[in-house]
């Protein structure tokens, strides 16, 4: 039998679906929704909760927790605002209940009911790939022309001697806590470790943050990390940098984590332990590898620029492929993957990762798009720096939300923006204007020429553009202007 005949033998005459999407997190939901909106017949398979990580264990609960922690901190610092400062008696169980309430409020948006109403057929169960065109869910086999894998990622737990003798948390399980840990050990200096260390500390846990590297948030410039570390230190988060984990043990009622810091041994004591050491793409256990699907050296699905995997009928999006593990990237990739999957006979586009913004929601927030100084130096890209401190921004002063700054890197001598880092209150919101500008090739002069509302933090974007303009005013023009104005003062 020839190959074509063989294929004909096992492929159905007509597929049930144009697209089956595996996983109903940010990537899966957007893939399913867009495909249904484009008129395709779509099935969405989720083994656990609709909304995936972002809604149930990630962005939503963490930002709800951070909000309570921020308010507790503001209450303590009420004297900065002319009000009596106070000790805050945090009802931790209530805070965690609010976190769950927040999830419940958003939940309908990601629910089966909503997606069914949008024209997506939802299946609950673990998807298993039987071929590049067949997905089993329980007893059912869904046949489909294309598949989008959006299976996400799971928290990494380091291999550590003694780990089986202690209970520990990850970002998946920490939300079940109802009793505040008196002393919390957080392992990891990335966004999860930093956001949760500060939040738990502000809610009254004594936090020790144990970090492998020499600083927190190592993707950011050193000055940014130093400010965050200073704030953490001032608020009482104990930082253990350059730590190599050795072993962990339960001793009486406490957890004892032993690390090497250089040649020295250091022990860290706590009542609870949280690992935040990265998230591993979910590529195994649903038949992809059996079909010859490959993963890259990061352990993420291997895909081309159009998000097609090594199995031609299967595309992918979100944390399972990365490399940027953000909800907004999952959604962005989902749009590319699903439309490519539906229309690949006639048209495919590449996913655009040239401009990926992100914000780490520590206080002060750290937001970035494009290059920072350490990237520019590493890539040997020439740049100029223009910086505006929040202290020069009236709204930051009236709100007592200093410290912070806006730093813009531009092409030397030009207003073309290479990258922006904003550190400070609402940095993530303020960044959006720069993302739009960069995406559309607008330089700082265009931002300067745009009327910004006074007094807002976003006005800082215009002020930093003004600072750039002041420094680039053509020097040769100055004597001419002086002569012109001298002449104009003559009384004729
Ligand atoms: C604590 C924390 C805070 C975060 N904060 C932010 C933030 O502020 N901003 C931001 O942009 N990002 C944040 N993130 C990252 C963000 O949550 C993820 O990037 C995003 O959720 C990834 O979406 P996804 O659809 O790729 O994966 P997921 O949301 O993980 O969805 C994958 C889904 O697939 C399902 N699944 C897996 N295998 C199968 C199978 N075989 N069959 C059926 N279903 C399957 C899973 O059950 C899951 O529901 C945070 C993450 C964490 C953990
Ligand atoms: N605000 C946001 O957008 C946001 C918030 C949270 C999470 N996220 C996403 O989730 C992803 C995962 O976050 P994360 O913070 O877990 O991972 P990460 O990879 O960003 O950081 C992991 C940290 O753990 C440290 N580490 C790794 N192994 C270690 C070990 N054995 N001992 C001690 N330290 C160790 C690393 O040095 C690093 O500091 C991020 O990449 C991010 O994209 C985003």
TrEMBL record:
NAD(+) binds at residues 188-195, 278. Disulfide bonds join 54-59. InterPro entries: FAD/NAD-bd_sf (IPR036188), FAD/NAD-binding_dom (IPR023753), FAD/NAD-linked_Rdtase_dimer_sf (IPR016156), Pyr_nuc-diS_OxRdtase (IPR001100), Pyr_nucl-diS_OxRdtase_dimer (IPR004099), Pyr_OxRdtase_I_AS (IPR012999). The keyword NADP applies. Its cofactor is FAD. Pfam families: Pyr_redox_2, Pyr_redox_dim. GO terms for molecular function: flavin adenine dinucleotide binding; NAD(P)H dehydrogenase (quinone) activity; oxidoreductase activity, acting on a sulfur group of donors, NAD(P) as acceptor. Residues 17-334 form the FAD/NAD(P)-binding domain. The keyword Nuclease does not apply. Keywords: Disulfide bond, FAD, Flavoprotein, NAD, NADP, Nucleotide-binding, Oxidoreductase, Redox-active center. Residues 356-460 form the Pyridine nucleotide-disulphide oxidoreductase dimerisation domain. Binds 1 FAD per subunit. FAD binds at residues 63, 319. SUPFAM superfamilies: FAD/NAD(P)-binding domain, FAD/NAD-linked reductases, dimerisation (C-terminal) domain. Coiled coil: none annotated. Belongs to the class-I pyridine nucleotide-disulfide oxidoreductase family. PANTHER family: MERCURIC REDUCTASE. This is Pyridine nucleotide-disulphide oxidoreductase dimerisation region. It comes from Desulfuromonas acetoxidans (strain DSM 684 / 11070). The lineage of its organism: Bacteria, Pseudomonadati, Thermodesulfobacteriota, Desulfuromonadia, Desulfuromonadales.
């Amino acid at each position: 039998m020839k190959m074509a005949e063989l294929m004909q033998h096992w492929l159905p005459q007509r597929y049930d679906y144009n697209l089956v999407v595996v996983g109903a997190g940010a990537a899966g939901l957007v893939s399913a929704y867009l495909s249904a909106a484009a008129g395709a017949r779509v099935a969405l398979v989720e083994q656990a909760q609709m909304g995936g990580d972002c809604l149930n264990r990630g962005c939503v609960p963490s930002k709800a927790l951070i909000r309570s922690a921020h308010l507790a901190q503001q209450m303590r610092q009420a004297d900065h605002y002319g009000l009596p400062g106070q000790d805050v008696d945090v009802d931790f169980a209530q805070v965690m209940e609010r976190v769950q309430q927040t999830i419940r409020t958003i939940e309908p948006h990601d629910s089966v009911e909503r997606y069914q109403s949008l024209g997506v057929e939802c299946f609950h169960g673990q998807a298993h790939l039987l071929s590049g065109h067949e997905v089993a869910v329980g007893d059912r086999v869904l046949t489909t022309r294309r598949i989008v894998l959006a299976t996400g990622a799971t928290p990494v737990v380091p291999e550590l001697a003694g780990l089986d003798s202690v209970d520990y948390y990850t970002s998946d399980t920490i939300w079940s806590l109802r009793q505040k840990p008196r002393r919390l050990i957080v392992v990891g200096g990335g966004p999860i470790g930093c956001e949760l260390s500060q939040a738990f500390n502000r809610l009254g846990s004594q936090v020790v943050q144990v970090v492998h590297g020499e600083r927190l948030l190592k993707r950011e410039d050193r000055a940014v990390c130093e400010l965050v570390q200073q704030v953490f230190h001032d608020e009482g988060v104990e930082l253990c940098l350059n730590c190599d984990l050795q072993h962990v043990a339960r001793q009486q009622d406490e957890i004892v984590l032993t690390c090497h810091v250089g040649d020295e041994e250091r022990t860290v004591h706590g009542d609870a332990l949280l690992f935040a050491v990265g998230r591993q793409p979910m590529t195994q256990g649903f038949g992809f590898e059996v079909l010859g699907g490959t993963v890259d050296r990061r352990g993420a699905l291997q895909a081309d620029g159009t998000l097609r995997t090594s199995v031609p009928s299967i595309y992918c999006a979100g944390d399972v492929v990365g490399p940027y593990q953000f909800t907004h990237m999952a959604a962005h990739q989902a749009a590319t993957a699903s439309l490519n999957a539906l229309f690949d006979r006639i048209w495919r586009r590449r996913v655009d990762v040239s401009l990926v913004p992100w914000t780490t929601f520590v206080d002060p927030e750290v937001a970035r798009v494009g290059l920072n100084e350490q990237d520019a130096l590493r890539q040997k890209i020439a740049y100029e720096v223009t910086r505006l401190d929040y202290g020069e921004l009236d709204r930051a002063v009236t709100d007592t939300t200093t410290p912070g700054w806006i730093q813009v890197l531009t092409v030397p001598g030009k207003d073309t923006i290479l990258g922006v880092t904003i550190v400070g209150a609402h940095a993530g919101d303020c960044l959006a204007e720069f993302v739009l500008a960069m995406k559309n090739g607008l330089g700082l002069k265009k931002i300067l020429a745009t009327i910004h509302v006074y007094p807002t933090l976003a006005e800082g974007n215009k002020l930093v553009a003004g600072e750039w303009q002041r420094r680039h005013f053509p020097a040769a023009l100055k004597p001419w202007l002086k002569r012109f104005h001298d002449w104009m003062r003559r009384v004729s």
